Amino acid sequence: MINIQKPGLLTSIQDEGRIGYQQFGIGTSGAMDQLSFRLANWLVGNEGNEAVLEITMLGPTIAFEADALIAICGADLSPAVGKQKLQNGRTFFVRKGSVLRFGTCRSGCRAYLAIAGGFAVADVMESKSTYLLANIGGYQGRALQQGDSLQAGECTETAKKLLVSLRNKLGSTAHVWQAPWGVSDSFCKSFSQKIIPIRVTHGKHFDNFDAASRKNFFAKPFHISSQSDRMGYRLENNKLINLSNKQLLSEAVRFGTIQVPPDGNPIVLMADHQTTGGYPKIAEVATVDLPLLAQAKPGDQIQFQSISLAEAHKLMLEREKALQLLRLQINQQFEMA
Amino acid sequence: MDYQLQPFGDNAVMVIFGEKNERSIHQHVQKLADFLQDNPFDWMTAYIPAFTNITLFYEPIKIMQENDTTDPYSVVCKDLESVLGNLQHVPQTPANTIDIPVCYGGAYGPDLEVIAKHNQLTREEVIRIHSQGDYLVYMIGFSPAFPYIGGMPDKINTPRKATPRISIPAGSVGIAGGQTGIYPLASPGGWQIIGRTPLKLFQPASEKPSLLKAGDRVRFTPISEMAYQKWGDAND
């Protein structure tokens, strides 16, 4: 029911991720920015883990071959249907025959396009996420290409009700209608900062680095290199010196592990990272800041801040409480529509 | 059984049984992995066994909300300590032995000659030594279903190729220093390729996506080129 007329730079189907198969070497993949992914789903009445499109910097052109309820969250890639610009964090009714286009990347790096019912592709190991490295999941295990057609799944009752209500409010000529509510873009604004602050806890091998490296790791910002993708971000401008020359045995790594290969330029592991690694780990990105990091793009600057494990958990809980409140408000709007 | 618990980021814990790559340490890793496979904690989302430690991922928010606490890491450690305390009295589960048929040499094992020359052996001797090793899968990692296999006799130890090949076919069995391994997916690589197995190590559509798991014993069995091809046909 949607047709990809142009694929954009890298557009792939993602969900929460392929969780629980890491002992077999299967990476989790999933949406890089889990926060925007969840918000976009809630805005179209989905439970929160339906498959969405992750759109990277240069967006696709998408033709709608059926009426749809959609929402876009995360990066602002200037989406528009005809002359009407679509605001992020809003629910839209899009009429059959409409064409959605993206333009300039105004802020962030990755936009999430959710559709009521989610994108219907087969589950591979309980997930619809595209795992590019192994060519599994998503749409034929790959990024979307011109001519691909995607179906939406069965929408929830609330989404159906809203779809009918918005369709009735739409004039006969308009292609798209925006619901009169939305979520605040305060989160989206934080990725436009000149130096993006990212909170971390100390890594397993933090003490193996020399005093200057341990200090500079937090004192000096890093540049995100052009060799950065869904697997990892390579960081430049601040080389780190490891005092231990001991060869490490490979062991588990996580989304957010900051490892330092012998050349001294750290790599932050992202959603498509391998399950294990053998480089020293200087720090671990706090889960609460992973969505922000996922919105940083090559050329951006980030600066690490040290926090305790207790703080990381406190921030996580606060974020979740705020999100659940937001979800409640979204659901109320749906009820009233 | 000595161990140490260490936080790993804000959503994982590492259970460390030692530092040295030894079978006796890996046995503890294996015991806990077997336990977790059958009795996963309700807060656990995934676990990754490695050479000397095992990492468990948890859901901090779920633990905080269900236990009305702000310290999910303590809940995780308490549960783990009680299991680890009892685990020493649990007998080790017998390991599975998986037979890996390998067609050695020829087009399937272009580096067999290199390995023979490097170790001043005949090709037949290399095949005999490689297929008589007592092998243990220490962990699966690096790429989907890739097994880290220990136990190769040192007599066929051969350094990696100076220039990696651009593409090594799936199923290729290789040697890198004192390690032997199998490529589950076609990929670039610098291992000396000794042969190829017709078995599929990575089976994404199957209930068990990886043929091997940590703790499995492996036996390499030489097969002829004809047997390899027959096997391949049966797979298609």
Automatic annotation (TrEMBL), chain A:
InterPro entries in the record: CT_A_B, Cyclophilin-like_dom_sf, PxpC
Superkingdom of this protein's organism: Bacteria
Keywords: ATP-binding, Hydrolase, Nucleotide-binding
Segments forming domain Carboxyltransferase: 23-322
Name of the protein in question: Biotin-dependent carboxyltransferase family protein
Lineage: Bacteria, Bacillati, Bacillota, Bacilli, Bacillales
From TrEMBL, chain B:
Chain ranges of the Carboxyltransferase domain: 3-212
UniProt enzyme class: hydrolase
GO molecular function, one term: 5-oxoprolinase (ATP-hydrolyzing) activity
Keyword list, A-Z: ATP-binding, Hydrolase, Nucleotide-binding
Name of the protein described by the UniProt record: 5-oxoprolinase subunit PxpB
Organism: Tigheibacillus jepli
EC number: 3.5.2.9
SUPFAM superfamilies: Cyclophilin-like, PH0987 N-terminal domain-like
Lineage summary: Bacteria, Bacillati, Bacillota, Bacilli, Bacillales
